Write a sequence for this structure.
């Protein structure tokens, strides 16, 4: 009987909900799930775990200590979800300096209280799990598809580490690419005068789609979820290659196709799901608000 | 100890790398802070390479190519010029001073110019101080 742990650091809790999926519940029937953050509190004492599935980015000192402690106590550690693998939404704060964001969000009185009460202080920089500890399996996705979680759990219960291949979203995109590059500017999806054509690549119509630089973490072999619903990809799967900077890759691709890259004003939002690993950094000098 | 910056210079094979050779033949001296990386064309130095150099601890990056119109591959240096604009803006995005990057042209015979570019770049980076990589 294996001991499992689900735990959330700085996360929304969406990845934990995966544990309630019927297939996973029946798979774990013979095993013991020690902690499940939506139902129980963090483990005290000196338990050890066979598999720790941890979601969320590392935001404060408590998370950091807890993560290191869990790594020491578990045999396999799985980074569950884009926050754990690439920083995700919580890592968006890396765009601001630590003092600045603390001041903006919390009033002075609260800050003094935090210092007095000894509550965990936020880290100067939001990190992904693999910046601090060794991660055995990284499952990006927001949330990851249940099939990956199932396969990971099955393999780890057998003692083997599963290998996944994350191609780019374009691989199973159903839309047609004609190779005609006559677009010179990007525009917003609903701001264009004409509605985007169905069955044509979004980028070829001048709509920013992060498909080329995003890992396909939707169900593989089937059309990506957002594109199947006729929306451009937003990059929730994180970068295709480990440690790649999707913003640079995307802008490189735009310049290569002679699209005016300045026509997309909020380029930092390309990093909305991959802000850790030093990708998203505060602005320097006078531009700093 | 005074600060000795590390500067990466991407030199194109046909002009500026040859200029470095010429400078050596003429027994000119230039600051030791520059590490030269030979590339086939300045047009292959993408923003990714420049940012990677800075992220891994270089204090400044130079891209040296053939003078405009003299590119061995016809338009490689125009492409480098296009990218240079993008690099400067991205450096600010990523929290680096845009002055840490410079694009310059020098042909194979312009050893003087090569030395002058490197000297002025080193001086500028020394004034800026070491690169700040916050990953801690």
């Amino acid at each position: 009987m294996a001991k499992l742990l689900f735990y959330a650091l700085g996360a929304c809790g969406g990845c934990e909900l995966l544990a309630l999926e019927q297939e996973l519940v029946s798979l774990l029937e013979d095993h013991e799930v020690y902690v499940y953050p939506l139902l129980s509190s963090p483990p005290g004492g000196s338990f050890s775990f066979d598999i720790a599935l941890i979601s969320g980015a590392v935001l404060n000192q408590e998370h950091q200590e807890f993560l290191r402690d869990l790594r020491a106590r578990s045999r396999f550690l799985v980074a569950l979800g884009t926050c754990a693998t690439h920083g995700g939404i919580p890592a968006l704060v890396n765009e601001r300096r630590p003092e600045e964001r603390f001041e903006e969000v919390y009033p002075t009185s609260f800050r003094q209280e935090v210092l007095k009460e000894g509550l965990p202080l936020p880290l100067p920089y939001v990190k992904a799990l693999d910046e601090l500890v060794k991660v055995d399996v990284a499952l990006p996705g927001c949330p990851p598809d249940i099939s990956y979680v199932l396969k990971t759990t099955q393999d780890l219960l057998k003692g083997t580490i599963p290998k996944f291949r994350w191609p780019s979203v374009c691989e199973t995109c159903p839309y047609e690419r004609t190779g005609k590059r006559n677009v010179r500017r990007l525009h917003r999806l609903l701001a264009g005068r004409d509605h985007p054509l169905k069955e044509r690549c979004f980028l070829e119509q001048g709509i920013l789609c992060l498909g080329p630089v995003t890992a396909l973490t939707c169900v593989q072999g089937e059309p990506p979820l957002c594109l199947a619903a006729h929306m451009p990809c937003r990059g929730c799967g994180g970068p295709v290659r480990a440690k790649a900077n999707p913003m640079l890759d995307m802008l490189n691709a735009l310049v290569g196709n002679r699209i005016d890259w300045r026509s997309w004003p909020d380029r930092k939002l390309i990093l909305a799901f991959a802000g850790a690993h030093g990708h998203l950094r505060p602005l320097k000098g006078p531009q700093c608000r | 100890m005074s600060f000795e910056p590390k500067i990466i210079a991407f030199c194109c094979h046909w002009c500026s790398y040859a200029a470095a050779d010429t400078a050596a033949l003429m027994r000119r001296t230039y600051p030791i802070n520059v590490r030269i990386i030979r590339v086939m064309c300045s047009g292959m130095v993408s923003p990714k390479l420049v940012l990677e150099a800075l992220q891994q601890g270089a204090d400044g990056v130079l891209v040296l190519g053939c003078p405009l119109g003299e590119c061995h591959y016809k338009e490689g240096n125009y492409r480098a010029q296009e990218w240079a604009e993008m690099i400067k803006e991205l450096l600010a995005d990523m929290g680096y001073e845009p002055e840490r990057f410079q694009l310059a042209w020098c042909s194979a015979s312009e050893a003087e110019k090569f030395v002058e570019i490197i000297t002025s770049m080193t001086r500028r980076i020394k004034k800026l101080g070491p690169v700040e990589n916050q990953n801690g």
About this structure: Chain A has two domains: 3-158, 167-289. The longest strand of chain A covers residues 49-55.
